[in-house]
Each structure stands twice: as C-alpha cells, then as structure tokens.
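Write out a record, fold above all:
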Amino acid sequence: MDISLRDKKALVTGGSRGIGRAIVIALARAGAEVVTCFRNDGAAVDGLREDLEGLGAVPHLVKADVTRPDEVERLVAECRSRLGRLDAVVNNAGMTSHVPFERLSAAEWRASVDTNLTSAMLVVQKCLPLLAPGASIVNMGSRAATVGVPLRAHYTAAKAGLIGLTRSLAKELGPRGFRVNVVAPGPVATETDVPEEVLERYRSLIALGRLGRPEEIANVVLFLISDASGFVSGETIHVDGGV
C-alpha cells in the first residue's frame, strides 16, 4: 500500500534523532509538511535540516523543551503560524536511563514521567484548537510498558501511563472525530551506543532474531496518520518483531 500524506500538516516532538528523525523523514517523503522540535542544538539537527532540504521539504525545526508548559505553548504557536492547522500530532519526545530501583531518586523519576508522559498531555492539550477534522494523535510508547524491564521502573511506569492516557483520550476526543493510538516499539537499532552483550540479549528475545529499524517504526506511524487507518483508535500497536 502506497501511503500518501500530501497536504497533511503534522507536529512531531523529539524529531532530530533515532525513531523521531525517521518519522519526520518518512512524513516528509509521503508529502506532509512537518514541524518538529528538539531540545539541544548540534550535528543531529543540522543533518536533519539538510536531509529535509534534500527532499524538497521546508525544514520547520523549533528548539523547545516539551516538559515545560511555556515552551509547549511557543511550539504550538509556531505550528499555528507556519502550518495553520494540524492533521497529526506525534508525541515522540522521550528519555530513558538505567537505575537500580533502590537508587532511583525522586528527581530521576520526575524527569522520566515529565518527558515520557506529561509532555504528551501538554502537547495534545495545547494542540486541540489546531486539530483539523479527522486528526490523528500518535503517542510513542514502548514494549517495556507491558512486560517490564529491570532498572527501568521509572521509564516503564511512564510508558504504561501513556497507554492509559491514550485510551481515555480516544474515548473523550473520539466524538470530535480525533483518533488517538500508541505505537509501542521493541528494541530498535539507533545511533545510541549499546553494549554488544545487551544487543545480543535483545536479539535472543525477538522472534525475528534482529533489532528493528527506525524506518519500520515510522511506517506504522504513517499508517496511523493516513486515512487508511480511519477506524483505528484507542489501540496500542506493538512493533517488536515478536518479542
């Protein structure tokens, strides 16, 4: 199925690296006009700008911390001035760390919940006035939310909360014609350095025997944004190779 997003307007948070970057590129290739945000300047942002220009797309890159309500408001204002409306919102901004539970500080817990869960609430809430009829909201979850991962209790709890938020929003916003879903990746090969022994353990848990590619996650996001998924809402789609 050839998915076209021509004339669609989208916001993708955390789009300069990894899965977020793959989503931004995939949306642009499919014809959508995309605003994305990033927290830190650097080579990743510069590279994304160059790649978007190479596709003939306008690189709408906005520096914003989506854990801060004032910066979310500024980001949404940029979407209003640059795009006029939003047909899709992809909450991809996130963070993770590995901390034994007995040493997990309240500050680390709050940082994880704020980045992985509260930011999605803030972004969706502030974007509501811009959402066009039939708009699609995609929250990027994690397979960890339903299986649990040692040393990542804070991350797992936040991603599990994202599933609950999604189910509630699907029911509350559904009468307005908005769809809300979760894409939950399993282990994915990104530019982040991961020890080989950890990668091997991941591969041993996956039925397909390999890690996913960011583009494979992005393809599912494209489906959920497209009109082809017009009757899909409130779902969590696991893209994990058969963990």
